[in-house]
Amino acid sequence: MVAWGEEAVKIVNSMARGEQDTAAVQRNLLADSLVFVVAVHRRIAWVTDNGLWNRLGREEGSLWWNAQRRALALDGETLEQSVEAALNLYALTARRVRSVLLPAELAILEHVCAIIRRERTFRGNVRDAMG
Q1: CA separation for the pair 14, 88 (Å, rounded)
Q2: What residues have CB less than 8 Å from 22, skipping those under 6 apart?
Q3: What 3-state DSSP class applies to 127?
């Protein structure tokens, strides 16, 4: 999760600079990779990742699954909407795994989530998934 925080911050920075291509790539990295963080956290073994996104999406509940689907732009979301969803997915995943993190790791995740919250406040989209 700590390493994926860098990708979340890159999304915030690239959107602020109008670098849509970079934001889209970072969004894709988060949308694709955070499912594996949750799978490892839940000690789910998989032989193939086929179906893993659907399985974990359903099992993690509607907030996580909706954020994942929107980050993947499965329902025609705009770039801004899908980027927002990817950031929310990061924050939701951070909340999910926070109990197993070391204090230094948790501090990094909280810092990343604070950056996300500041960006959302600036744009008027406050939602604190880290909780």
Answers
A1: 16
A2: 10, 14
A3: coil
The predicted pLDDT at position 23 comes to: 95
Over residues 2-23, the pLDDT tens digits come to 899 999 999 999 999 999 999 9
End-to-end CA distance of the chain: 16
Q: How many CB atoms lie within 10 A of CB 44?
A: 14
Distance CA 120, CA 76 (A): 21
**Residue in the structure block whose two tokens are 């070391």:** 102
- Give the C-alpha separation, 4 to 110, whole Å: 13
Domains defined along the chain, listed by start:
2-123 (1.20.120)
pLDDT digits (tens, 9 = 90+) for 58-92: 888 889 999 999 999 999 999 999 999 999 999 99
Cα–Cα dist 58/16, whole Å: 32
